[in-house]
Amino acid sequence: MNAPITMATHAENYLHERRRLGFGLRSPGYSIISFAHYIDALNTQEPLTVEMMADWARQDQGHSADPTTWARRLKHLRSFCRYLRQFEPRTEVPDDSLFGRVGQRLAPHIYSGQEIIDLLNAAHNLDSFIPGLRGATYETLFGLLASTGLRISEALHLLDSNVDLKAGILTIRQTKFAKSRYVPLHPSTVDALRQYQSLRNRHIEVSDETRFFVGDRGRRLGQPLSQRQVHRVFIAIRNHLGWINRGAHNGPRIHDLRHTFIVRRILLWQTQGTNVDQQMLALSTYVGHAMVTNTYWYLTGIPELMAGAANRFEAFAQLPETGHD
After folding, report:
1. 181 and 149 in contact (C-beta within 8 Å)?
2. Is the dihedral of CA 296, 144, 153, 120 positive or negative?
3. pLDDT tens digit string along 51-81?
4. Which is catalytic among the residues 58, 181, 255, 264?
5. Which residue among 176, 179, 181, 194 is the active-site one?
6. Which of 45, 119, 54, 122 shows the shortest CA–CA distance to 88?
7. What's the whole-model pTM score?
8. Which helix (H) or strand (E) holds 71?
9. 255 among known catalytic residues
């Protein structure tokens, strides 16, 4: 008679399948493996219950007494428990009723057109050991984020060989969800990238493995920019410009340029009367979302888009009813 499969084996199989589909599952993966070892140590043959999961959730390494921490640990188990139901249909799936809901996504700061112009102008005027290079680097970097919705990590990991200015296409390799994609560029963005590349190439030796955006100071000349460097520069510019924060975070962020790109695209479709639902999958693919539902979040999480959707629904609701023969 075959020995029963351990919960740790189920966990490894589940994580392997999910990661093969492109999901990183770094934090949930730790939780699922921890839970599997916990269940195996109980040496029980009973179906998994919410009570077992709650007991495990309360025993986090930090010995937290915060129900939010326990709720987050339980949330990591939900998809895994649904997966386990194919082997044991009586497996229970935890919901929000035990420890409450985990905090929702916070509304981002959506930049105005003038704020983006001011950001690029301030970046352009940054001091530099090499005349113009530092300013051009940050002006072009922030402009690329605003015009494409790239993640900052994706932009900083671009190699020179990933930027095809003849075709006007970026190749984004092995991104957040271990997927690659092509990102077409607007001609004005291509022109800006070409100008920066020309200036950069006068000061460094370039190979296919050279990062597109590089440092300009001393030993950092020609070396990749780090996210820490970029965030430090951005915060200095933000403080200098004194923007009024319209988001729920501590202040406007670099990542909010990505949110702004998505929101402005959807607003444009709403203004043009385009069927947004028909375009959402294309937008989700363009920005590299793992699931189209991540893109749909903007329709309920951003006041500007909620207002547009409400106005369209109101117009629809006021249409006269038609009779049926």
Report:
1. no
2. negative
3. 999 999 998 877 777 788 888 888 899 999 9
4. 255
5. 176
6. 45
7. 0.69
8. helix 67-75
9. yes
